From TrEMBL:
Species the sequence originates in: Lanius ludovicianus
Annotated protein name in UniProt: IPIL1 protein
Entry superkingdom: Eukaryota
Length: 133
């Protein structure tokens, strides 16, 4: 599942130097984008506060899913697991299947158990595209 940054934000992949594999040791920085030069209506710029809006703003979602300026994959996994569990309860067409969210700190793993004990296992792995707008 490719994650998209919220409006007026971008992702920047920052690699660790060292001997470990970059994709396993990357930090994804969430950067605020300046909107001063764009026509965005009455929406204030996050980066450069105006006189009416003295402090820079941050998305509530980012406050939940980030540690400082970086995405927290464990928080994202927990959040997505909760969303999947809640969404499942609103899918009446799957009423004969039971969803079990399996423990995982870096993805969303689910086990579906259906009629005649038929089972399906799925894992949602999170990613961002480099240069994501």
């Amino acid at each position: 599942v490719f994650l998209q940054p919220p409006s007026r934000h971008s992702f920047k992949l920052e690699l660790y130097s060292g001997t470990r594999l970059p994709e396993r040791c990357s930090n994804i920085r969430v950067m605020l984008e300046c909107t001063c030069l764009r026509k965005v209506g009455d929406i204030p710029c996050f980066v450069h506060p105006s006189k009416n809006n003295e402090t820079a703003q941050h998305s509530p979602l980012l406050k939940t899913l980030c540690i400082g300026s970086y995405l927290d994959v464990e928080e994202i996994a927990c959040w997505v697991q909760s969303l999947v569990q809640t969404a499942w309860e609103h899918l009446p067409q799957w009423q004969h299947w039971q969803l079990t969210v399996l423990p995982s700190s870096r993805s969303c793993r689910v086990l579906l158990t259906g009629p005649s004990d038929r089972q399906l296992c799925a894992e949602l792995v999170f990613a961002v595209e480099q240069g994501s707008p």
